Amino acid sequence: MQQRLEREWELTIGPDTVRLFIEKANAISAAIKDDYADGNEHEVELDGDTRDNHHHDGLAEEKADNLMAEELSELINDLNVDEAAELIALMWIGRGDYDASEWAEALAEARQRGNKRTAKYLLGMPMLGDWLEEGLEAVGA
């Protein structure tokens, strides 16, 4: 856990907005973890012993998971350039790529990346919610 930073700046993105993203990312991550918790949820053997370990209504759950990810993606895509860069910088700090005291460097690097693929980049991270939460805590938001 990183030491909290006494900030001399304010976030453009509201901490409550980041917390909403954290909730949605954690829900998406939990759905994936629950789906594969025992390692053979989808295993079906047709030779010999017929087993069907399909413990969920796959299409309904898959559609709900996709809608949740799609909603989070749209929310991220609606961010302005500064907010998107801050979201990436928070994730990097939470992940440990940067220390909270290196906020300016993390933010500058995130701004250079642009935000055309921000949602895809962030949603590709299974621990996104955890890292955003740790990043918020580290910067004292």
From TrEMBL:
It comes from the Bacteria. InterPro entries: DUF3775. This is DUF3775 domain-containing protein. It comes from Mesorhizobium zhangyense.
